[in-house]
Each structure stands twice: as structure tokens, then as C-alpha cells.
Design goal:
With about 160 residues, the protein is α/β, with parallel strands linked by helices. The chain has one domain: Spore Coat Polysaccharide Biosynthesis Protein SpsA, Chain A (Alpha-Beta Complex). It contains 4 helices and 10 strands; from the N terminus they run βββαβαβαβαββββ. The strands form 2 sheets. An 8-stranded mixed sheet has the order 5-4-1-6-8-7-9-10, with helices on both faces. A two-stranded antiparallel sheet has the order 2-3. The longest helix is centred in the middle third of the chain and has 12 residues. The C terminus is likely disordered.
């Protein structure tokens, strides 16, 4: 399975720390947040990972020379980024926020045959599984929300951009 880690945000809420580094490079327990996320995905045998970046891209690329990056000259937003990367991502992939650490069991999310967005006590935990719909005329994909371990509720998500 492939994964997209969203790291192209401006990090304005972490200023002044992010005045000189991207948010995904802020260290937690001696490692950048992005490293924690890559290791988290690797624990579930997710190794085909792409990371979108914007602010201070050279810092991220230098630290992670073996990672695939998608540089955004201006932040495009999650929907546009996913749409542009759709040929690489395929029909089933994970999306993680590049500033959200979690230890939720990813295999539960990965086992679904429809799109899922994880929720924990009503707060988005930064994980989403995307499975593209195949029915013509339907939404590009659907998302089920997880609240306290139980999936419920249908939500509309992105449309593809050309």
C-alpha cells in the first residue's frame, strides 16, 4: 500500500519555531515528526511513501534523501495534491497529516474496503484511507469516520482536478 504524508503547510501556529524550519522537521523525543511518521508507516509495511513539501524543502530533502517528495511552490491543499498524485497513489492509499503523531492501530484502517477517516473522541487523528469508487457518476471516493473505534457516518470528500 502507498501513503501520502501531508507536509506542505506553512506552520504558522508553531511560529516562531517554524520561521526557520518546516513543521514536519520539529523534533519530538530527538527525531523530526516526519521521521516518526515514516517509522510508524514502516511498522505496518507501508514503504511506498510520498511527502508533499513547501517551506524550507532543502531541510527535509537533506534529512530524508531516500524519500520521494512532491514539492509545491505554493501550498495546493490536500484535495489538489491528492488529485495531482493520483496516478502514483493508485486506487487505495493512506494519507497522514505531517504534524500529527498517533499510535492508533493502522491495520484496522488498512483493512477496510471503502475510504475511512480516523476519528478519536471526535477529533481527527490525522489518518485517512482512500479507496476510489468505481461507479460512474458517484463521488470520487467516500469516507467513513472513526469515533472511539467504531466506524460510522458517510462524508463527502474531494473531487479530482485536471
Amino acid at each position: 500500500m502507498k501513503a501520502l504524508i501531508l507536509c506542505a503547510g506553512l506552520g504558522t501556529r508553531l511560529q516562531p519555531i517554524t520561521d526557520f524550519m518546516p513543521k514536519c522537521m520539529v523534533e519530538i523525543n530527538g527525531k523530526p515528526v516526519l521521521q516518526h511518521l515514516i517509522e510508524y508507516l514502516n511498522r505496518y509495511e507501508v514503504t511506498d511513501i510520498i511527502v508533499n513539501i513547501h517551506s524550507f524543502p532543502e531541510q527535509v530533502i537533506t534529512k530524508f534523501p531516500n524519500v520521494l517528495f512532491f514539492y509545491e511552490k505554493v501550498p495546493l491543499g490536500e484535495a489538489v495534491t491528492e488529485s495531482l498524485l493520483a496516478p502514483w497513489l493508485g486506487n487505495k492509499y493512506l494519507v497522514l497529516n505531517g504534524d500529527t503523531l498517533t499510535d492508533l492501530p493502522l491495520e484496522k484502517l488498512m483493512g477496510y474496503t471503502h475510504s475511512v477517516k480516523s476519528m478519536d473522541c471526535g477529533v481527527y487523528t490525522g489518518q485517512k484511507l482512500v479507496v476510489k469508487d468505481t461507479e460512474p457518476g458517484e463521488a470520487d471516493f467516500t469516507a467513513w469516520w472513526q469515533d472511539m473505534g467504531t466506524f460510522s457516518g458517510l462524508a463527502k470528500t474531494i473531487n479530482h482536478y485536471s
